[in-house]
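F.,

This is the one I mentioned.
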């Protein structure tokens, strides 16, 4: 650590090294041991600023200003209105209906015959003409 870094840390964090970020405290104590007069002067100036800032208190707003600000603030609707409840119920009903339809379609599509013969497939695919193919397994 050098003098500039030490001074910047004192300006940012005050005149008590123990209140500085933990990752720089060891280096700050080492700099204090290495250059005690310069480091102590920086810490003394920082402590004086700390004490001056501790004395200052931010001004408190008057009650009239507080009341005007609160009166001008937008008001939110408290509680649940019937319209919001019905909107939520409608969305819930729509999601439930979509889920039920998905389950029904899934069960209908998922139930295929275990084994279909060539005759059944061909007869199902043709409307007017019936084509019957001979069973090829029995001829071999």
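My design for it:
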């Amino acid at each position: 650590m050098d003098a500039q870094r030490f001074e910047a840390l004192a300006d940012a964090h005050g005149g008590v090294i123990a209140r500085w970020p933990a990752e720089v405290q060891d280096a700050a104590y080492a700099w204090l041991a290495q250059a005690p007069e310069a480091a102590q002067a920086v810490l003394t100036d920082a402590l004086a600023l700390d004490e001056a800032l501790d004395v200052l208190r931010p001004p408190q707003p008057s009650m009239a200003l507080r009341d005007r600000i609160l009166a001008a603030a937008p008001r939110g609707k408290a509680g649940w209105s019937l319209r919001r409840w019905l909107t939520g119920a409608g969305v819930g009903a729509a999601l439930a209906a979509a889920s039920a339809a998905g389950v029904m379609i899934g069960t209908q599509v998922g139930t295929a015959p275990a084994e279909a013969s060539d005759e059944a497939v061909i007869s199902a695919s043709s409307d007017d003409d019936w084509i019957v193919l001979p069973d090829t397994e029995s001829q071999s």
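The first helix runs from residue 3 to 13.

Talk soon.
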